[in-house]
Amino acid sequence: MADDKSGRDKQARDEDRRQREREIDTEIERGDESEPSVDTSPLDYFETELDSLKFPATGAEIVAVIGDRAVELGDEHYTVEELVPEVDSEHFDSPSALNVRLQRPTIAAGMKRVLEATNTLPNAELGDSQRDAYEKTFQELKAIDADDDDEGIAAIADWIVEHIREKESLPGSRDVRREAATFCRTNGYEIRNSEWLGI
Q: Which candidate among 4, 6, 119, 178 keeps its CA 20 to 30 Å from the CA of 143?
């Protein structure tokens, strides 16, 4: 990588993302995570193929090697390519970081759509804090809409992708939160002002 401002910025962003993934792994191992413990069995079926990847690996590299492989999560079946964005901007430090993503399929599918749509913009890049805000919004929608089909995540992912296509720019994280809050209130979910979506 070139030793210029752009190269150093990319290295810093990559390190931030790796640190976030390590923190997630640590929280899950300690049991502090509010979500269920991560089941590694979906990756066990294609452990050999994962060994051929050099981590950190991009989403595009992972999809190229194991994209067509099936992942069973409870009663649901997905392929890896349905959950991992086929872009070079998304990196996974380790198989466990990939596993964390696969364990949250509706959030992963929503983020995949957003990241792939972002990749079509010529001069836009989804910064780490904005990406985290989008993902946190999806997580909050998952928590609110836990008993339904996660239609909130799909609706907001649709809204973000439509915004990217129509305006050729990324919506601000506050705009995404505001749209998610509107969706929740329209569908009868109570949002308090102290909550992430209470904007």
A: 119
pLDDT of residue 120: 93
pLDDT recorded at residue 33: 43
- What is the value of pTM for the model shown? 0.75
Task: Report the distance separating Cα 71 and Cα 78, nearest Å.
Answer: 5
Of 181, 176, 183, 175, whose CA–CA distance to 193 is shortest? 181
Furthest CA-CA distance within the chain: 52
Confidence (pLDDT) at 38? 46
82 and 175, same structural domain?
no
Cβ neighbors of 139 (< 8 A, separation 6 or more) are 104, 107
Query: What domain count does the chain have?
Result: 2
CB contact at 8 A, 152 and 176: no
**d(Cα 53, Cα 94) in Å, to the nearest integer?**
10
> The domain containing residue 149 runs over which residues?
105-199
Q: Are residues 62 and 150 in the same domain?
A: no
Same domain (yes/no): 34, 97: yes
132 and 119 in one domain? yes
- 174-190 pLDDT, tens digit each: 999 999 999 999 988 88
**What's the pLDDT score for residue 72?**
81
Contact 86, 111 (CB under 8 A): no
Judge contact between 22 and 93, C-beta under 8 A: yes
The C-alpha angle with vertex 134 and arms to 132 and 135, in degrees rounded to 5, equals 65
Mean pLDDT of 59-72: 90
